[in-house]
Amino acid sequence: MGSSEHVKKAVAGYFNDPKGTANLLGTTMAGNGVEVKVVDQNSQRLTELKKKLEDEIKAKKELEKLAKQIEITITPEGLRIELIEDKDGTFYKSGSAQLSESGQELLELLAQS
Questions:
Q1: Fewer CB atoms < 10 Å away: N or C end of the chain?
Q2: Do the Cβ atoms of 20 and 5 come closer than 8 Å?
Q3: Nearest 10 degrees: CA dihedral of 32, 34, 39, 42?
Q4: CB-based contacts of 30-39 (< 8 A; 24+ apart in sequence)
Q5: Rounded-to-integer distance, Cα 84 and Cα 66, Å
Q6: Taking a C-beta distance cutoff of 8 angstroms, is the pair 38, 19 a contact?
Q7: Phi, psi (5° rounding) for residue 83?
Q8: Residue 68: its pLDDT value, please?
């Protein structure tokens, strides 16, 4: 608490960006609070891939039950695909580490994209 203002800003900056990737986006470790959105060809491709995957999942009748359990988001690191298990539909056979038919089909679809 008795630290200088510079040290306080540096510590706050670390907690705002612990990986130190803000420098790559045009901000500083001091954590100035300004978000810089980088729009490039890669983000365009990720957006297109996300839409393609969502459309393909919706088009497959076998995956219809699992569609609500698949979250696809674009992050600074790339495309994040989260598969969320619940009581109504699963990616694995009950009590087993083996994929269900729907789970297998989904992973094959994702691998091809």
A1: N
A2: no
A3: 50
A4: none
A5: 9
A6: no
A7: -110, 115
A8: 84
Tokens for 26, please give them.
């045009």
Q: What is the pLDDT of residues 24-45, one digit of tens each?
A: 555 454 445 555 455 566 788 8
What is the C-alpha to C-alpha distance for residues 71 and 50, in angstroms, rounded to an integer?
Answer: 10
Residue recorded with tokens 């297109």: 48
* Residue 103: C-alpha distances to residues 2, 8, 34, 38 (Å): 55, 48, 41, 34
Whether 72 and 50 have beta carbons less than 8 Å apart is answered as yes
If one compares 16 and 68, the residue with the highest pLDDT of the two is 68
The residue written with tokens 């038919």 in the block is 101
State the SS3 of 6-67: HHHHHHHHHHHCCCCCHHHHCCCCCCCCCCCCCCCHHHHHHHHHHHHHHHHHHHCHHHCCCH
Q: Which two tokens stand for residue 95?
A: 């009590």
At residue 85, φ and ψ (nearest 5 deg) are -75, 145
